[in-house]
């Protein structure tokens, strides 16, 4: 070991993951895909098993002063299911690991598991195990999920091809805008505890932050229509960051039309009220857990009238050219800020 010390912030989250990944290779024939997609892919005969894990840490991912424990439990399952959806799979089992301090009562843990149970019921997932330990630094909830799909039906970040159409579900930016509202109301409350939070007015965005949904409905609909996206990822870090993942993994470029990016009208108005640019929120906000995917042009007819799928751009062959066509018609380089954890 040398004495040199490199700060994590020099690498960033994705640099760190690339570094870890470069030190490992896959040894088992059943390990079809390792680090680098929304879930690992494991050979299971006619099917593939999908495996993914996501951890939520108090003070980093949530603040219990405005995150009810039921919602936290639901969200912790949702973010995992969303990664299985992003592989075009169906979730089947979860295991739940908790780090707890004696700050939490039995009733509080019951509330957390009420949310986990509701999510398991909604997504048709079985809770099959976990781990419980003491934590000295607040609540930690780490969930791993197992999913499945027919071999060959799985969808990677790497399959986008020239001229494919780029699609995104639902609307974007709401979860980030909701977080800004919750943070502001918390400041108001800390300054003057007799003030009641003003959340009703911003119900949509707050709901997007506290109660995100994994888009399994879209996965079922695509299957019913006989459409297999060429590439897919879920929007956890922000549209721009996810587009860069598709670009890097598929070795293609993306051409995105700003005016096609879907933003809910209420969330839009709230952003403006907060002096935030709604499009910046949509591009860089994250936590919306919508699906970003590409389809072949032939499949457009089958999807064009879908109320909740939006066509935001197209794929072109140069991976170095990831551009945004602004509302004013200017072509500018796409920038990804994403979340900086370190
Ligand atoms: P997502 O946002 O879809 O959950 P991440 O950005 O967290 O994906 O992770 C990207 C890829 O890196 C995934 O394949 C994930 O399994 C892998 N990964 C993340 N952290 C680590 C780690 N500490 N060790 C090994 N692999 C990791
Ligand atoms: Mg993901």
Q: Fraction of residues in helices?
A: 25-40%
Give the number of helices. 10
CATH level-1 class of the largest domain: Alpha Beta
Series of secondary-structure elements, N-terminal to C-terminal:
HEEEHEHEEEHHHEHEHHEHEEE
The CATH topology assignment of the largest domain is Phosphoribosyl-aminoimidazole Synthetase, Chain A, domain 2
Name the beta content range: 15-25%
Biggest sheet character: 7 strands, mixed
Average pLDDT number: 94
Number of strands: 13
Instruction: Report low-confidence residues grouped into runs of 5 or more.
Output: none
Spatial shape:
globular
CATH architecture field of the largest domain: Alpha-Beta Complex
| Rg measurement, Å | 20 Å
**Please, what is the CATH homologous superfamily of the largest domain?**
PurM-like C-terminal domain
Ligand species: adenosine-5'-diphosphate, magnesium ion
Structural class category:
alpha+beta
- What count of domains describes the coordinates? 2
Quote the distance from N terminus to C terminus. Answer: 23 Å
